[in-house]
Each structure stands twice: as C-alpha cells, then as structure tokens.
Amino acid sequence: MTESTISNPVMRYLQEHPRWQAVGNKLKQLRTDIREARELPHIEIYLMADRAEARNHPFYANLVKEHYRDATRRHPKFPLIRHIEWGVALCQLPATFDEYFMMVEGAARRNFKKAKRLGYEFRPFDFDDHLEEIQTIHRSTKVRQGPVSEALMADLKPVGNPQPQDRTHGYPAFGAFNSDGVLRAYATCHIAGEMCMLEDIYGDARYQSDGYVPMLYLSIGEHLLKEYPEVKYFAYGTYYGASETLRRFKRKFRFMPHRVTWKLNSPETSANLAKG
Fold first, then answer.
1. DSSP labels for 93-150?
2. Are 50 and 269 in contact (CB under 8 A)?
3. Which of 54, 99, 181, 190 could serve as 197's disulfide partner, Cβ 3.0–4.6 Å?
4. Which residues are paired to 89 by β-bridges?
5. What is the pLDDT of residues 158-169, one digit of tens each?
6. If DSSP codes are grouped into helix, strand and coil, which group holds residue 19?
7. Helix, strand, coil shares of the chain as percentages rounded to 5?
8. Which domain holds residue 13?
9. 275: how many CB neighbours lie within 10 A of its CB?
10. pTM for this one?
11. What is the pLDDT of residues 231-274, one digit of tens each?
C-alpha cells in the first residue's frame, strides 16, 4: 500500500469501514463487468416453438413460450436491456464428446474419472419415481450457495410432466447413481430447440468428494451430443450477478458469458416472419 493511498481520506475511510469497502468492491466489479459485456460474443438461439406446437405435447409448447417471454422481457434492474440477454452462461458444444471432455478443466476430468472408478453410473430417470431419494439429497445440507430455503426442504409431490413426443423439446432429469443404484445427485434440464438450459442441480453433500457433480455435467454434455441433434448450446443461467465462486465453477465447465438474441421459432419460420 502506497503512502499516497493511505493519505487519501476516501481510501482511508473505506479501509476503516469494511462494509463500505465491500460496496466499493462491488462497484469496481460492476464496472469491470460492463466493460467485458461490450465484447461478448453475440449469438442467436432458435427455440423452435413452432415444432413443439406441431409435434409435441402442448405442455412443451407452453414451456418454451414461457421461457421466451421471460428471456425477452425488460430487465427489472436495467430496463434498457432484455432480462436474459447479456451474460448468458453458455457452452457451445463441439462435434464430439472427446472434444468436450478436453475443453473443461483438468480437475473436472479427474473427478469424472474418480466417480467412474467408484462405480457411479449416469442415466436419465423419471423424477416422480425417485422422490424419496431426491428429498434425501435436498436435506443433506442446510447451506448451498447460502441458506437452503424451506421450500427445498419440504416434502416433494409428483410433478407429472408428460412424456415428450420428440427430441426437439423436453424437460428431462438426469442422475448420478452409485454402485448400489442409489441416486446421489441429479439435474433437470429444459431442452428447447438449440438450447439445453440447466435448471436445477443438487447432490448429496455427504458424498460430494466422490466426484459425482463433474461426472453429471460431463455426462449430460455427452448425452446431448448423442440424443439431441438440434441442441448446440448447453446453458447454465447467467454469469453476471453470480458470486465469484460460482463464476469460477461455471468457467471450469466452459459456461462462458455470451450475449443472446432469442428466436422463438425455427430458422425457416423465423426467416419467413422476418420477410413479412
């Protein structure tokens, strides 16, 4: 620390009052984020609602339209931009799983291999068939990026989502099962055209060192490449506004900030609508 810094009355006040120092750090981070946001890669994501209406259960057409309305409404804090536009955390999937596997950080790859050695198995599952195990996972800790809500600790009821009729839209659940077939971690995803948005991911805190979470992320990516040919982007919420710990976690799995323009319908339909 330089003598000039110490003599500055504003800096001296911040050093003596940690609360205001924290505010100053947040403002500094905000300025940095704004500068970075100007250089974000800008992509278009087609949600293909027209295909859901033509081929799938109405539940999925309604779900994708709800996502589109939420993503394109005005941001509650920054009304000049859309709600989910700047800083969407995306991993652009490569052509093969081997390429995807090598994209993530080495620690994630090592934990993936560790979980495999311990006998963990990845597979899609029916959420309503595993409610008791899911409740055990939810109740395994009272802190997850902050205190766990009462709603998460409450008894679960069946969700009753209809089976999708094709692979363009869906809301699957994916699980990491131990060698005894017990669900230790799970994730739910919203698949809509070119997007797979990770909605929830929870693991049993007592077994976190087994490496099941990295295995789950990487296995979802592999499953998308094999089973969902339309999906180009694996998404995990937004980057800006997240804590530095969560940002670091997202970067580990290549969920990097992008600017996204959401397109409700397929490329062909969107092009026709643009022509009028």
1. --SSHHHHHHHS-HHHHHHHHHHHHTT-EEEEE-GGGGHHHHHHHHTT-SBSSSBPPH
2. yes
3. 190
4. 257
5. 999 999 999 999
6. helix
7. 45, 20, 30
8. 3-32
9. 6
10. 0.84
11. 999 999 888 877 888 889 899 999 999 999 999 999 988 877 67
